[in-house]
Amino acid sequence: MVNPSTNQVFNKLTSSVYDREEELKAFDGTKAGVRGLVEDGVSKVPQMFIDPPDKTDMSTTSKGKEDQFKIPVIDLEGINKIHDDSRRKEIINEVKSAVETWGFFQVVNHGIPVEILDEMLEGVKRFHEQPKEERSKFYSRDDYKLVKYNSNFDLFTAPAANWRDSLGCVMAPASPNPEDLPIVLRDVVMEYSKHVMKLGVVLFELLSEALGLNSNHLTDMGCSEGLFLIGHYYPPCPEPEKTLGLAKHSDNDFLTVVLQDRIGGLQVLHQGFWIDVPPIHGGLVINAGDLLQLVSNDRFKSSEHRVLAKNVGPRTSVACLFTVHSQPSTRVYGPIKELISEENPALYRDTTLTEYMAHFNEKGLDGNSALTHFRLS
């Protein structure tokens, strides 16, 4: 069966009274994503993507304040071989300051070859630029599929759809068979994931020590066990002032490792300003997720961030989320007991990853933090 073109779908919808649910279903039914709209030559942003002006407002950006607001950049050169205790402590202090004040930082000299980073981005681009008949074979909204392609995981719950498509691959602890991965990026996804898992262990060691705990504390809690890789594709947008590539949100995990291309558009909310996260070729963006803020009892910050829509591109990025994504889990997480005292009582109730993910997915990217639901009064 041939899917209808996106132009046919939206021409039909705009000829009658607007019905948002019908538009969403029609868009989802094409299995072609936002890329399908661009392929069919759409010249205006469909209504389902349009955000209220306050959501896309650029007046709160940090333009002109670049010297005042700079995302921390941390050099991890030789971190696995450092025997100089003073240099390791210096790095830990840099990580501690970045995660407590920003929730975001970038790392360079992290050990992943730049050739693999470049090929990972190219692989994402290759997948999303296949003919729609090929990429639609992976289209699904089944939360339990290890490999799936779709546009907007929260398409039917978010206030407005975002201008992006995504390929998600659960790589750990239950990884897909290599044959289940799209052939156009199969090898690099497997290779890149192995490198990110190793980097994750290093980062969780540094974060543990930054909390004053043993270096293996967060790893022993299972924070580094799960990895969900998402290859995002942001096509050029004909009216970027009307929508977003990714709405304001904080991440639903312990830690996120982001590889972004040179186009830019990622911003973090800091002291009331949207701060650009400038692309660094060979660098990686690291940000704390909600679950790290929860277990650290607010010592670490899960900052809200967004991605702007642009009229250039496509923009590609790869987000690797450390969490047991969409897999049943009974492990309970709450504020780490060693961080709790009479002077610093627990700020959150205990929860399981399954409960947390269910709440996050139900509410979607509505601009509100999922952590509020778990905060003690």
TrEMBL record:
Q: What are the GO MF terms of this UniProt record?
A: dioxygenase activity; metal ion binding
Q: Name one Pfam family in it.
A: 2OG-FeII_Oxy
Gene3D superfamilies (alphabetical) = B-lactam Antibiotic, Isopenicillin N Synthase, Chain
Keywords carried by this UniProt record: Iron, Metal-binding, Oxidoreductase
Task: Determine the domain of life of the protein's source.
Answer: Eukaryota
Is Metal-binding among the key words of this record?
A: yes
Task: Tell me which InterPro entries the record gives.
Answer: DIOX_N, IPNS-like_FE2OG_OXY, IPNS-like_sf, Oxoglu/Fe-dep_dioxygenase_dom
Give the matching PROSITE patterns.
FE2OG_OXY
Q: Can you give the residue ranges of the Fe2OG dioxygenase domain?
A: 223-326
The keyword Ubl conjugation is assigned to this record: no
* Family in the record: Belongs to the iron/ascorbate-dependent oxidoreductase family.
**PANTHER family annotated for this entry?**
1-AMINOCYCLOPROPANE-1-CARBOXYLATE OXIDASE HOMOLOG 1-LIKE (PTHR10209:SF884), OXIDOREDUCTASE, 2OG-FE II OXYGENASE FAMILY PROTEIN (PTHR10209)
The name of this protein is Fe2OG dioxygenase domain-containing protein
From what organism does this protein derive?
A: Stephania cephalantha
Q: What is the lineage of its organism?
A: Eukaryota, Viridiplantae, Streptophyta, Embryophyta, Tracheophyta
